[in-house]
Hints:
Structural class: mainly alpha
Number of helices: 19
Largest sheet: none
Strand content: under 5%
Shape: elongated
Radius of gyration: 42 Å
Amino acid sequence: MRTKRRLALSVLLAAVALAAGAFPFRATWWGGFILAIAEAGIVGGLADWFAVTALFRRPLGLPIPHTALIPANWQLLAQRVGTMVGDRVLTREYLVLEIDRMDLAEWVARGAERVTRADLEAATRTLLGWAAREAPVASAGELVGRLQRLLVAQPVARTLATALELGRQHGWDRRVIGALARALADALERPELRRTVGELVDEVLVRYRERVSFYPRLALGLAGLLGLIDRERIVAALHSGLTEVANDAAHPLRERLSDAVAEFAGRLRRDVVLAGRVEAVKEELLGSPVVARLVDDGARALRRALLVDLQRPASEAVAWVADRLERWHRVVVTDAALRGQVERWIKTRATELVERHHGRIAAFIEKGVHALGPEGAVRLIEEHAGDDLQYIRVNGTVVGGLAGGLLYAIHLLVRLL
């Protein structure tokens, strides 16, 4: 804006210089003509300088009435700007129409197509690292405390029954059973766990022999001598069975466990004694300091393990999260119906927000202008409109000079006539 202010001042000074140069020749027709142009330009430039300056401050610091208009009326200006923008520009009908015109589904598709696997992994690593470093460990204990206060007055039996029924309705129970079977089968492939399970099988067989009578014990002994009862075979059979359950979505064991979940959900609603036991277990767990310590220790251990894992180039946590994000990413890219549903949901929520809070737009804008203060309002208008206002000064000098020359030409013509 300083450059444009210098330009306006230069044009005004040029008019002054022209007037000074033409003054000795004012008695001639051409000298008077040039002097008239220069004097009118000076008057027009000074008048527009006064008008532009009076908007923002007092010209020459003089207490002239109706000057420094913006600082003197900035509160009224804030109110009128808020009313104009909120009630006349960003009207309710205009905003709803613009929301309806947006092709959000196409935007989502284009944005999703540009996302790569490397982008997902980088974003996941950054977010997990930030969460592990910045999230305080105490927040886990606070979360447990809030959950305890929430669950104390909430009957958990019916809530648990509803959750189990909802999971069965969507097939989540079978998926959980399959995932657990897969996890156990994968765990049994580790030699350490396999050896531990084998030792547990031996211990169970020993205790069983101690409890049964002579003839069953004799039969077990013979079976062991013949190699029919062998812990490796039992562990191998257990591993094979778990693998079969994990791979077969229609496995009978999945069906039986799913039916057992449904039956348990029904009992939670009907059986008062069972519901009371569940409530007692809930109260015992919520009131136990051991649970709080376990959660706190678990949060600390999880945080340390996550930070260590994120330091590795092939982070398991990053890979696990990125796999699921990539799966959702493929669905978003290929499923136009899903994008349409997302678009309709977003537009519906946005329209509801406009309908509910449109009346606050004017007040929001008014408070924003109000927060600038008188100096801030002057600075904002000068930054955005100062150049155009300086051109008004230039135009005033030029147009004033042209008007002065025209009037003098008319004066000469009248004298000739």
